Amino acid sequence: xxxxxxxxxxxxxxxxxxxxxxxxxxxxxxxxxxxxxxxxxxxxxxxxxxxxxxxxxxxxxxxxxxxxxxxxxxx
Amino acid sequence: xxxxxxxxxxxxxxxxxxxxxxxxxxxxxxxxxxxxxxxxxxxxxxxxxxxxxxxxxxxxxxxxxxxxxxxxxxxxxxxxxxxxxxxxxxxxxxxxxxxxxxxxxxxxxxxxxxxxxxxxxxxxxxxxxxxxxxxxxxxxxxxxxxxxxxxxxxxxxxxxxxxxxxxxxxxxxxxxxxxxxxxxxxxxxxxxxxxxxxxxxxxxxxxxxxxxxxxxxxxxxxxxxxxxxxxxxxxxxxxxxxxxxxxxxxxxxxxxxxxxxxxxxxxxxxxxxxxxxxxxxxxxxxxxxxxxxxxxxxxxxxxxxxxxxxxxxxxxxxxxxxxxxxxxxxxxxxxxxxxxxxxxxxxxxxxxxxxxxxxxxxxxxxxxxxxxxxxxxxxxxxxxxxxxxxxxxxxxxxxxxxxxxxxxxxxxxxxxxxxxxxxxxxxxxxxxxxxxxxxxxxxxxxxxxxxxxxxxxxxxxxxxxxxxxxxxxxxxxxxxxxxxxxxxxxxxxxxxxxxxxxxxxxxxxxxxxxxxxxxxxxxxxxxxxxxxxxxxxxxxxxxxxxxxxxxxxxxxxxxxxxxxxxxxxxxxxxxxxxxxxxxxxxxxxxxxxxxxx
Lengths: 75, 597
Description:
The complex is a heterodimer of chains A (about 80) and B (about 600).
Chain A: E1 2-7, H1 10-15, E2 19-23, H2 30-36, E3 45-49, E4 52-53, E5 65-70
Parallel strand pairs in A: 1-5
Antiparallel strand pairs in A: 1-2, 3-4, 3-5
Chain B: E1 7-12, E2 17-22, H1 25-31, H2 34-45, E3 59-62, E4 77-82, E5 89-94, H3 98-103, E6 109-113, E7 120-125, E8 128-133, H4 142-153, E9 158-161, H5 164-167, E10 175-177, E11 181-183, H6 188-194, E12 197-203, H7 213-229, H8 231-240, H9 245-251, H10 273-279, E13 281-285, E14 295-299, E15 304-306, H11 310-316, H12 325-338, H13 342-357, H14 373-382, H15 386-390, H16 394-400, E16 409-410, E17 413-414, H17 424-432, H18 446-451, H19 465-482, H20 494-505, H21 511-531, H22 543-547, H23 562-573, H24 583-588
Parallel strand pairs in B: 1-6, 7-12
Antiparallel strand pairs in B: 1-2, 3-4, 3-6, 4-5, 7-8, 9-10, 9-12, 10-11, 13-14, 14-15, 16-17
Helix pairs in contact in B: 1-2, 2-19, 2-21, 7-20, 11-13, 12-14, 13-16, 17-19, 17-23, 19-21, 19-23, 20-21
């Protein structure tokens, strides 16, 4: 299945892109996408699946959009 | 004294008198300084018979025990007054260096009352205080005024002033310091203008005494280590500035667009913190003594300046349907020069755009018209044409045309950059904020709801949000009174601040007391507003947020479920169901004897 990963803030510099498509096996979870992107699974992220916050163990489905943010704040 | 300087200044501009008095130590221990001290003075000295632009209203500039020390983010101070925009108590908080320069003159606070018969400015050089003729700077913008007064009064001074907006008593005028730092909200600049007070120039050489310097060194090291280690304060804020929030709010579907008609902006990426960093950033900067450095020195093709911060970027950008980063940035520069609150300016312009869109009144500006932004801002500051109506803020403007529902405000203060329909707790926070539609005074519940700071909670749930709001409100009120920066609380909690306060003042503060001080301040502000006639009906939100579901995106179909959260909040606070603090609570907080107590 294919999902879209969107990257923000420092993750863009780290991976040299702002978004990409990931080809993952059926039943993959958010954690698998993080590994596929070569991001450290020990770092803290704010994760959203189709705009809704999610956890590392959430299962992905074809066509999902996974937004990955480092810890950020402002206001 | 330690931490506190032990004296305050009173300036009566009507009488042109300056007096110095010792501070009431008990009051300062109970309220710390800054916003807390401001609330105490305003409650006792400005009652419901005083109108905000009357000479009898006061401006209370106050520092706190941590201002100017080595504590993380020590460059902050506040001003408190009765707001001409809302009629409620307001405090506004700023950084830069003015607060520190003023405190080093040997004073904890400056209370200005009265009205000068001609424009004046104040100079405070240690204990040499003068009221001077301001004719050479009246009419000048903030940058010109600062340059002229620095030239006149000598380099190494710090200038706080109003721009033309404040002089013209525009109800959304800010007080600016060090050119681009703002005491922004609720029309504090109009109050300064009503007093014919153009500027306050400060430079001090006094030492801030520390009760336990060795312990202070250690606790500062600990606190700074936390700030330097936390991903938000060590990376997110310094690398991308506050506008790093644009994309996350947009992805979550709570980035208010076109006066809150939509909740995702198609041009978000173009105005994001990432785009600011890539396209216009010259360098990062920060307030006096700050180790975070979240401010942005930027450059467009035409100008250089500071900003935009997240709220300004949104208010003048997405909220007006504008995705031209340079136009937003230059509009921000102009607001700084004219001395306008960017949030309320953007919110009021967005309201004017919507009234135009709906054919209610021809305001001459449509959503997305970036090229008209600067002109309408200028008109607001000088009260020209449509600007004369917009100078009163969006609530009065919309009400004039029977369209108050299109003014996105609470208690008259324009809302900030988070659509609470997709973050219920922030909806409660906007409604209960003592200064009106502010994202900080009612608690920055967006922290846990969207940013996962300190931990993620369900943003769509309404149950349990009162506790979140209260915690953020109380800690925030204490932080605003120490006075340090809210951003540091991502890394350092009340335990750290209690230790810093203890090392600086010698008073054995504990973390619970820090929270109790915050609670005391919030309650006192609430009592003030109750005396002014505010009630439960004012702790509400614009109709759009309560009744119109979000049209699309992740939060589609949501409205704010306010009433149950409000009941929970009042109960949590120990207030009755009309939001009136009860005698038991007031006694617990040491506020017995005040109204309703």
